[in-house]
Design goal:
Strand content of chain B: 25-35%
Strand order of the largest sheet of chain A: 4-5-11-7-9-8
Structural class of chain B: alpha/beta
Strand order of the largest sheet of chain B: 6-7-8-3-9-10
Number of strands of chain B: 10
Oligomer: heterodimer
Radius of gyration of chain B: 17 Å
């Protein structure tokens, strides 16, 4: 009689013992599968957090060092004479780091924009200040105004708009057109709001001119009207916290250095300098180590020309609860594994040892030990496979409950995050205009709460693999201890 | 010609007191042997040595002239000998035919069981639902259908009544004659021993051959 046949007879005739073993393995399998799927969900949630918040660090000139300033007698102002970030610096740093997805040099400029050469300024999107802001705009439109009050657009110079910090953290999303790179010398990206307010669309040509052209003291020179093409429109995901349209994200232009060169009165040397370099990591978890590497450079550590700031505080803050859940899940998996091993070991050992009489009979009728072991392995394999299969369906219910719990926890976390959320900005530079900031990034919140506890094929594969392996080891170990008994010992145990 | 031979076998459980003391015997095919002796004298131990369930402290057990230890005890148990135990040793989740078919085909097992008096319904019933005599017949059938040349029976009539005892003895004798198998029965029943072709009496660790006719009547 084959081991398969004997196993079939045992499983079908010893129904009570078989059902008990099935239930034990079923419970362990359901716990294990739920843990696996929970682990997968938490890992996905962590990835969502990282992808939505992004991982970056930025480098900017060290303006905290008083030795980098000179006093200008004429203007009676302290002038920063330290080094500014350049493309060479960016390339040098990028060459030292592995795992960068890209980088972008930025500089904030101010400009005015008109739909026609020599025409009136476009209408800006008002900030939160309301009527006063609109009044300022109207005053600014008067070229011959006797006031210094003027209103301009914020211009972000960027070497690759796809790596602009706002695009990277999804505070703004490109909705029409294409991104621009430093090769594009006459292209800009503007907000949908600004485009709508002025009847502009992708492909339209507008004219930019330097902000200083409106200042009375600089009016000696005729302003240069540089034609640029609208290459794309972006939507703002959240709200600008600017009180004035002057600094609002809606009035931001993203363009290239060459485009700015075409209208600005600034020198070429001045234009080679940027305010910041933003570096983006493929895995935001690497940011801290990347910053450490950069800070060891001579121009950071020795000459103190630059400072590097990790931009991962939000990831750390939001990942906190997820990491706690992750640790809990790890502990749960370990616990399930330990309990599974112990329970299975005890149950199967006891079960096999209870069958010493049967083992003795089978040995006495001439069956080989391998043949007997094969029967026990076939039995446990059949029960484990059945239990694991049923566990898949049972775990779906558990996963639904777990998903609800996790979503509730993460929604709370996301709301707390939204309340305190601000795009991190460097300390305001003395001689550069403030960049706009955006709060309440709904894209980020959506990503945080997008969690799905599902049973993936890999979990099922893992369950079957681990379940069978554990069962086989337990049965084999218990059987081997029995089968290693000398025939005399089997005989005495039998009688 | 002897199929099994016990040659100068000594056996001790603890290494000090010998249960079997330098005993020798030989067993031929087609004959029934009885090993007689009081309880605890070492009869079952001797049977387990012959069956390869245990190994002697010294001496050798030969099957067909080959030392069974050298040939391998597992192979000896599977190819050369089959057992009939006092307590039947049937597998409780199997039917009689399944028990008997452990070491043979189902057809041979069924035929053997029927020859031993079990009905069609009985051979498909759980063994625990059979009487003691019927269970012993199943155990005998299992030994008979096995493709072995030696049957070792340990107190085969110990748990059955006199009538069944006679019947079992008759079956074993007939099997020896018909199949040419060597049947070695361990018993303390003189009546059963008298049915054997050769009787060995085991007393104080020493084995002595005795003619069945010389045995005193009645159970020991």
């Amino acid at each position: 009689m084959s081991p398969l046949h004997r196993a079939y007879l045992y499983l079908t005739r010893k129904r009570g013992k078989t059902i008990l073993l099935f239930l034990i393995i079923l419970v362990i399998a359901m716990m294990a599968l739920s843990s696996f799927s929970l682990k997968g969900a938490v890992q996905t949630a962590q990835l969502n957090v990282r992808e939505s918040l992004g991982g970056s660090f930025f480098v900017e000139p060290n303006k905290q060092n008083y030795n980098k300033y000179e006093y200008d007698e004429e203007t009676q102002e302290r002038i920063f004479i330290g080094k500014m970030p350049t493309k060479e610096l960016a390339e040098s740093i990028a060459g030292e780091l592995d795992g960068l997805s890209g980088y972008c040099l930025t500089r904030t400029w101010r400009a005015r924009m008109s739909k026609e050469e020599g025409g009136q300024d476009v209408n800006l999107v008002p900030g939160n200040a309301g009527p006063m802001d609109l009044l300022m705009q109207e005053q600014a439109k008067q070229e011959d105004s006797q006031t210094d009050i003027y209103i301009t657009l914020g211009v972000d110079i960027c070497t690759d708009s796809a790596f602009h910090p706002f695009f990277m953290n999804q505070s703004i999303l490109l909705t029409q057109g294409e991104h621009i790179t430093e090769e594009d010398d006459d292209s800009i990206l503007i907000s949908e709001d600004l485009a709508e307010k002025n009847g502009l669309s992708v492909g339209d040509t507008v004219y930019l001119r330097d902000q200083n052209s409106v200042l009375k003291k600089n009016k000696a020179e005729q302003p240069i009207y540089a034609p640029v093409t609208i290459a794309g429109l972006f939507s703002i995901n959240g709200t600008s916290d600017a009180e004035s349209g002057y600094t609002s994200a809606e009035n931001m232009i993203i363009t290239t250095q060459d485009a700015v060169k075409s209208f600005t009165v600034a020198s070429d040397k001045e234009l080679e300098q940027y305010d910041q370099i933003h570096f983006f990591a493929e895995d935001p978890a690497d940011i801290a180590s990347m910053v450490e590497i950069v800070e060891r450079r001579d121009d950071f550590y020795q000459t103190n020309d630059f400072l590097a700031y990790a931009n991962n505080e939000h990831i750390v803050a939001v990942e906190g609860p997820l990491q706690s859940i992750n640790r809990l899940v790890d502990f749960l998996i370990l616990l399930v594994f330990a309990i599974g091993v112990i329970v299975l070991w005890l149950v199967l050992s006891s079960r096999i040892k209870d069958r010493i009489h049967e083992t003795g009979i089978l040995l006495s009728v001439g069956l080989r030990k391998a043949n007997i072991l094969a029967q026990y392995l076939v039995e446990i394999t059949a029960v484990t496979l059945l239990a694991c299969t049923v566990a898949i369906f049972g775990s779906v219910l558990i996963s639904d409950v777990t998903e609800e719990f996790l979503r509730g926890t993460l929604t709370t976390t996301a709301q707390q995050q939204q309340e305190s959320s601000m795009v991190i900005q460097p300390e305001d530079s003395i001689d550069t205009p403030a960049a706009p900031s955006i709060i309440g990034n709904t894209q980020q919140q959506k990503a945080l709460t997008e969690i799905s506890v599902t049973i993936e094929p890999v979990h099922i594969f893992l369950l079957y693999g681990a379940g069978l392996l554990l069962s086989w080891i337990a049965v084999a170990a218990a059987s081997i201890s029995l089968l290693r008994l000398k025939p005399r010992e089997i005989l005495s145990k039998m009688s | 010609m002897s199929i099994m031979e016990v040659r100068s076998v000594t056996y001790s459980y603890d290494g000090t007191k010998n249960v079997l003391n330098d005993i020798s015997a030989s067993f031929e095919e087609g004959k029934v042997y009885a090993i007689l002796g009081p309880s605890g004298c070492g009869k079952t131990t001797l049977l387990s040595l012959i069956g390869g369930l245990d190994v002697p402290t010294s001496g050798t057990i030969l099957f067909d002239g080959t030392d069974i230890q050298q040939a391998g005890l597992e192979a000896h148990r599977s190819k050369h000998v089959s057992f009939i135990f006092q307590n039947y040793n049937l597998i409780d989740y199997m039917t009689p035919i399944e028990n008997a078919a452990l070491s043979a085909t189902k057809e041979a097992a069924g035929a053997a069981l029927k020859r031993l008096g079990l009905t069609d319904s009985e051979i498909k019933r759980n063994v625990l639902k059979l009487s003691g005599g019927q269970q012993q017949r199943v155990a005998i059938a299992r030994a008979l259908v096995a493709d072995t040349r030696v049957i070792l029976a340990d107190e085969p009539t110990g748990n059955v009544d006199d009538a069944m005892s006679v019947e079992i003895t008759k079956i074993l004798k007939e099997s020896a004659k018909e199949t040419g198998k060597c049947v070695i029965i361990v018993t303390h029943s003189i009546d059963l021993a008298k049915e054997a072709d050769t009787v060995f009496v085991l007393k104080n660790g020493v084995l002595q051959e005795q003619k069945p006719a010389e045995l005193e009547t009645g159970s020991n």
